[in-house]
Write a structure and sequence with these properties.
Layout lengths: L2 H41 L1 E2 L9 E7 L4 E6 L25 E8 H6 L8 H9 L4 E8 L8 E6 L1 H14 L10 E2 L9 E6 L9 H11 L4 E2 L5 H5 L7
Length: 239
Amino acid sequence: MNRLETCYTLIPMKKFLKYFLYSSLGFIVFIGLYLLSAYGLGKISVDKEPNSPEEVTMYILTNGVHTDLVMPLRNEQMDWSKEVKFENTIGKDTLAEYLAVGWGDKGFYLNTPTWADLTFSVAFKAATGLSTSAIHATFYKTMKVGNDCVELKISKEQYGRLIKYVQNSLLRSPDGHIINIKTNANYGKNDAFYEAGGSYSMLHTCNTWANNGLKSCGQKAALWTPFDSGIFGQYGIKQ
């Protein structure tokens, strides 16, 4: 190969390396800005609505990554067991007192039981909002307050808003019923998955959904957060 041929061979390689370098640098800058925004906006509080009567007890619950909103299974305003059926769980235990709901990427929920199972396809779709979403619903008999669980007292009117928020996140069949996802990816004996609306992305995560749920019912929340730490930090708990 003569010098001219060598030169023409090197030009495309130089362009490729240049584009690769710029792309990598851009990605690093984006991630840095994302994390900085998450930290900063997660520290900014949206205050609780003042002077609200304490009529309904709810909770926020985290597994260390993902936040659930926990509501009474039954009260005079709502009987969730009529929509979220016990029969859709493995255990079919009807003695629950609370229902925990979390929204998230359907691919993560159903195809990624552990981080070792995470694939590039699932991660890419989740990060970019290209996949569908699901509601994960879990029945609990009791709740234990701690670093992973915070008790909140809200008014009946505020709870009514939270009910609508959760209901509006669920997709329904033509006959009006929520849609159970048939899967063996259950986390335990008392949970099930349901089709949900909206798309998961880096800007709208499972914790963003839970944080917006707190805003919907007038509770203290972060201005914006993709992480559970942004939520629990508002209540003096570090994750």
